[in-house]
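#struct-queue
[09:14] JT: dropping the first one here, sequence first, then the structure tokens:
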Amino acid sequence: MVLKKTLIDAKNIVKTYITGTGEDCTFYALKGVSLQIEKGEFGYIKAQKKKRGLITFGLFAIPIIIFFTGLWQTGTRLNMFTFVAIMGCLPASRSAVGFVMMLMQKSMDPAVYQQIEERSGDLVKAYELT
């Protein structure tokens, strides 16, 4: 018996942005997204690409919203909001590097996966371990 460790287990993810005052000014970037993939399973790389892409998008969206909020409130980009937005781009840029590195990885061909599954029987298999 082989015990697998779940590396990605995200359930009911919700990310909202408040774009103004009132209840009708809520923007849902993510709503009710769930994902569970174990390292070594078929589809792991594709799931990682999707996960890292969403995280990178979210990390860049926050500084952009902060910047435009400061621009809207003060009428100029020379304010503290701009500084905070620039500092917020640092973790987003780090995440973008990881996302680009994951984009270079190739997923397993589904036809090859089917052939292996048909012939492997009860053998322990690990497909995508990047």
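[09:21] JT: and here's the second one, same format:
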Amino acid sequence: QKPMRLRIAPSPTGIAHIGTAWLAMFNLALARQSKGKFLIRIEDTDRARFVPEAEKLIYEGLGWLGIDYDEGGAKGGPHAPYRQSERLEIYRKYVEQLVAKGHAYYCFCTKEDLEKMRAEQLAAGELPKYNRKWRDADKTVVRQKLAAGEPYVIRLKVPDGREIKWQDLIRGEVVFQSSLLDDQVLLKADGYPTYHLGVVVDDHLMEITHILRGEEWISSTPKHILLYEAFGWKMPEFAHMPLIRNADKSKMSKRKNDVSILSYRDKGYLPEAVRNFIALLGWSHPEEKEVFSFREFLKVVSLERVQKTGPVFDVEKLNWYNGFYIRTIVKKRGLDALHERLKPFYPQDYAWEQALTILALVYERLVTLTDIEELTSFFYREIEVETDLLLKKSDVASVAEQLTRTIDELGKIEENDWTTAKIEEIVRGVCETQGYKKSQYFMMVRVAVTGKKATPPLFETMEVLGKEKVVKRLEGALTKLENYG
């Protein structure tokens, strides 16, 4: 297999998109398998939507996920610059070649001209398209307008009566009729190229052999094919990946969803969980595995196993992966390794002297790393006990009597004997000798000492809290009942 050169070309318009990472993984895999190169090019020619810090976020997001690249960014490379705004002279040179060859033309229509044209076409029930007013204009008139400095765009001269087809690596043969294509703007009035010109020129000059991109670009591909033909350049292979969708089958977009890579980092997702999850969006492992490493993905991925229908971004599934990988860290590398990962997520008032002891009790209940505060706060902060929870399936007098007996019996335990086993012996003894209903009594004790209905195992939790804190909290619950009503 010949070395493949692949790329992603994100636009710096805000966030580092999770879809960019997904495409980057497939591009990187094919490059590695063929001993080729994977590059990142920043397509920043849409100045209206340009966000200055967005490029940094793109590289930061990919770096967090461990997605490496060979050319672009801080690495540079033989085809620099890899930022389109620094390549404007290149685009102008090539678009003027197209004009000279008769494949493109100057258009001097104003914004008002175009709006009027569109309104008339819509009123007549026609598909809005440029009416080609300047396509075959008198060359003398064109020269005069250029000499006078009138603003213009340069448009592609789309041939009539053409069938444009290509063999898509995912979708098979795709056919378009040239009659459906507009005379696309290639160079804007501000001197910046449109996506169509920039992407074709750069992919050719950067020797890109395979283009993997989202299916929303299928309708643009015929225009790109016409440009390759007009320049006389060899065409790359195209593969149009399915669009990632929401559960309701709508397109996943930043207006409706959290699609930022770094947002998932900040929410406490692990990069290995996110990688495993997005790898299976629209692709399946040849051995039908659900869990595998990124290294394995890079070796076994192939376009043959990419589906045509848009995969659903299921957050519940991502949560499952994250919980799985959290437990895997502990299983393979111990609590200390998870503790290190959690450091950015611990609250400032965390019980640092008991960090690993507490973590041992709660790590299996972590879904994301940000859960650590919610799951542990009762260990080191004052709690608020809801009276209704204390009284669940019982009454004030009964619960007050239960609390009093529990306080008395736990108070008899020596400090050096305050262990899970001893606490369990005492609390179960109270329950059995008094004939309390287990589910009601144990829930009441849990609520009294933690303020929560769901916690790590009760007796281990009480040991970590310590005798003084447990007794004090039980007494506080009793006082609350005495003042109740």
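[09:30] RK: nice, looked through the second one.
[09:31] RK: Residues 315-333 form the longest helix (19 residues).
[09:31] JT: good to know. The mean pLDDT is 95.
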